[in-house]
């Protein structure tokens, strides 16, 4: 009898043993290799490492710039550390962007004057510097779409290498392109009979800057050659250096080639083209070269084509094997493959665009948006997913910028009459606030460093972590407590007015006690107190008083409002309800501040008013799925992530357009980041989640979810 029982137990446990086998990560990633067999401007491919990126078309270079810009994803070469400012001949001062704003009995100087000359200047400046553009020319002229046929291009996600095969006027061309695993270096190897004949050459040219008067997808400025310099400062066999100088910006482009070739300027006696260079073969059918970008603080490594390819392979293998992974390959639900595709491509794009030392704008390094400036309110989505998917080192790499900005942020808070640190909502590498009618009033970015530091501590619960980020956490908490204003008559602490909540849709003078911001203030101060306890420090009395007497989350008819006093969000004939109040349970964990059933009723009302699953688009897909999963409604979470409405579409290379600006912000990465945050929670869990694997997925037999290396959210 005992032997039969043991055999039965072994039989029952056998599937669990099978399921525990390591995921074949290479197979999961290979399922979603990007392949182009036609010219599709929405399928441009971005290569990079977080601090450097370039986007290529079907030729493997950036040959068809205008077609891709007009119809899809721009073709750019960028890094996180080359920035540019236009001249300021009128000596406009940042102080001229400031205006007094009433704040609870006193005046604060906020940079609200964005439509003045100073406001426009400091809104646009500084902005990232576009680096060189690499393209093919045929008979000295730009290659045209009618010259191209037989396209077969692949992006091997596992190695980060693009292989492009096509014909040019009937002749074969094969191009291999990669970005270095960590440095600002690209490598290209191109082979064709047209290279041997000299008809096909590689063109490198430099724009002056971006036309920043077009805010979210500025084109290059090509037509002002006299405003910048491209000087060939060194020429030697197999090597050339081009010094770039545009206003106060300087950087070098180091070209190295390993095949017989020469670099020549396109300038002639008939045509002045001082920023146009051609690399042409002197023998053989191959051009193989690297291009490295450097400045006084960032040196160009002496890399070959082979070493750059090897670096890309190693860096991507490390990324895919050392982090988290989800395998939905054996799930029978028909939505599984698309959910997995979106996840794998989003994982790829987040490393390309956000794994650097400066958190870029919401379109990452793919193209310029918001003048390339860091939008700190959504950064927690971009960074939290690195923690969830097992890449805490990449979270810390970006978080280091906050540590460097801490003294400047403390000075900013002091100038405004607050304690602690005031983080800029939108800033360039210099950390200076950007003028705007919205920027100064945003506050939900302020607790983000506490949230991210807590994630680091969960992964690395050491005293070293506490000491490294303690000041950042405590100064952030000081601001939270200082910003909340106590009503002398009631003893209740309130947030605003003036402020702008997440949706930014209500006048700052009318926004008081927004639901999510109240919940985030409460959670942030509680976590900061925990950090004090971990370090052996006593609780901070004022923080405790704010938590104990913070205004309740506003509600009406048993559902949370977005903002206190802004009522009647739901009802017959109303459409498109705001959803930011749902972040209080989803983005944030369950806390004493939030009533679960009120949150559930609110979620259902928002969901119905949005038109069910198809109403969740952009980064709100992740937002809705986070809330649904925490509420124990996994089918709804899956349906939201699987939304295939046009505005929720993920393009072939994984990017998603911003629905509010589909022709401007064509690579809107908060969508990818929030998606990964939601899927990571559904597969990897959260504090208090139901027991068992993949607690955020339905248990209906159609979802076989294999996950490993994921870290749970709070």
TrEMBL record:
<dbReference type="InterPro" id="IPR012341">
    <property type="entry name" value="6hp_glycosidase-like_sf"/>
</dbReference>
<protein>
    <recommendedName>
        <fullName>Six-hairpin glycosidase-like protein</fullName>
    </recommendedName>
</protein>
<dbReference type="InterPro" id="IPR008928">
    <property type="entry name" value="6-hairpin_glycosidase_sf"/>
</dbReference>
<keyword id="KW-0732">Signal</keyword>
<feature type="signal peptide">
    <location>
        <begin position="1"/>
        <end position="19"/>
    </location>
</feature>
């Amino acid at each position: 009898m005992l032997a039969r029982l043991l055999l039965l137990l072994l039989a029952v446990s056998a599937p669990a043993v099978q399921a525990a086998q390591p995921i074949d990560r290479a197979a999961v990633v290979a399922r979603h290799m990007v392949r182009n067999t036609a010219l599709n401007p929405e399928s441009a491919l971005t290569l990079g490492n977080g601090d450097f990126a370039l986007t290529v078309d079907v030729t493997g270079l950036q040959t068809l710039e205008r077609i891709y810009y007009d119809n899809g994803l721009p073709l750019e070469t960028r890094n996180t550390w080359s920035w540019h400012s236009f001249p300021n001949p009128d000596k406009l001062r940042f102080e001229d962007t400031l205006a007094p704003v009433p704040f609870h009995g006193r005046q604060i100087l906020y940079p609200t004057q964005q439509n003045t000359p100073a406001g426009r200047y400091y809104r646009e400046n500084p902005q990232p510097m576009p680096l060189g553009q690499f393209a093919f020319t045929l008979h000295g002229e730009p290659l045209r779409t009618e010259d191209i046929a037989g396209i077969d291009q692949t992006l091997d996600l596992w190695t980060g290498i693009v292989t492009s095969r096509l014909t040019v006027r009937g002749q074969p061309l094969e191009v291999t392109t990669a970005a270095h695993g960590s440095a600002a270096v690209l490598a290209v190897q191109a082979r064709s009979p047209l290279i041997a004949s000299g008809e096909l050459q590689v063109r490198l040219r430099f724009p002056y800057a971006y036309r920043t008067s077009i805010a979210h997808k500025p084109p290059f400025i090509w037509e002002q050659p006299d405003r910048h310099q491209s000087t060939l400062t060194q020429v030697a066999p197999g090597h050339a250096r081009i010094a770039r100088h545009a206003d106060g910006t300087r950087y070098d482009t180091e070209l190295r080639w390993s095949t017989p070739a020469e670099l020549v300027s396109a300038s002639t006696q008939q045509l002045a083209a001082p920023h146009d260079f051609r690399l042409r073969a002197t023998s053989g059918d191959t051009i193989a070269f690297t291009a490295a970008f450097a400045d006084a603080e960032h040196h160009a490594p002496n890399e070959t084509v082979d070493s750059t390819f090897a670096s890309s392979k190693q860096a991507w293998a490390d990324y895919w094997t050392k982090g988290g992974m989800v395998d939905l390959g054996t799930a029978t639900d028909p939505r599984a493959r698309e959910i997995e595709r979106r996840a794998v491509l989003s994982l790829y794009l987040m490393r390309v665009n956000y794994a650097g030392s400066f958190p870029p704008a919401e379109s990452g390094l793919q193209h310029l948006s918001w003048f390339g400036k860091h939008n700190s309110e959504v950064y927690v989505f971009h960074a939290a997913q690195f923690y969830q998917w097992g890449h805490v080192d990449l979270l810390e790499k970006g978080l280091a910028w906050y540590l460097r900005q801490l003294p400047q942020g403390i000075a900013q808070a002091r100038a405004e009459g607050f304690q602690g640190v005031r983080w800029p909502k939108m800033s360039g590498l210099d950390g200076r606030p950007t003028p705007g009618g919205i920027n100064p009033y945003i506050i939900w970015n302020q607790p983000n460093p506490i949230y991210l530091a807590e994630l680091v501590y969960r992964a690395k619960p050491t005293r070293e972590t506490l000491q490294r980020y303690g000041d950042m956490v405590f100064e952030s908490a000081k601001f939270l407590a200082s910003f909340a204003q106590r009503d002398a008559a009631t003893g209740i602490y309130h947030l605003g007015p003036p402020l702008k909540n997440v949706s930014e849709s209500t006048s700052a003078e009318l926004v008081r006690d927004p639901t999510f911001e109240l919940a985030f203030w409460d959670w942030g101060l509680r976590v900061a107190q925990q950090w004090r306890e971990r370090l052996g420090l006593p609780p901070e009395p004022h923080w405790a008083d704010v938590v104990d007497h913070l205004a309740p989350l506003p509600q009406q008819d048993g559902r949370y409002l977005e903002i206190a006093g802004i009522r009647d969000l739901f009802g017959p004939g109303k459409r498109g309800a705001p959803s930011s109040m749902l972040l209080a349970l989803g983005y944030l964990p369950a806390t004493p501040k939030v009533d679960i059933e009120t949150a559930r009723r609110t979620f259902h009302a928002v969901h119905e008013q949005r038109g069910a699953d198809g109403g969740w688009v952009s980064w709100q897909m992740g937002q809705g799925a986070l809330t649904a999963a925490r509420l124990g409604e996994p089918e709804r979470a899956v349906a939201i992530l699987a939304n295939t409405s046009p505005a929720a579409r993920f393009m072939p290379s994984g990017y998603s357009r911003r629905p509010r600006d589909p022709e401007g912000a064509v690579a809107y990465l908060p969508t990818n980041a929030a998606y990964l945050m939601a899927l990571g929670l559904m597969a990897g869990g959260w504090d208090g989640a139901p027991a068992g694997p993949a607690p955020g997925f339905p248990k209906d037999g159609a979802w076989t979810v294999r996950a490993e290396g994921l870290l749970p959210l709070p």
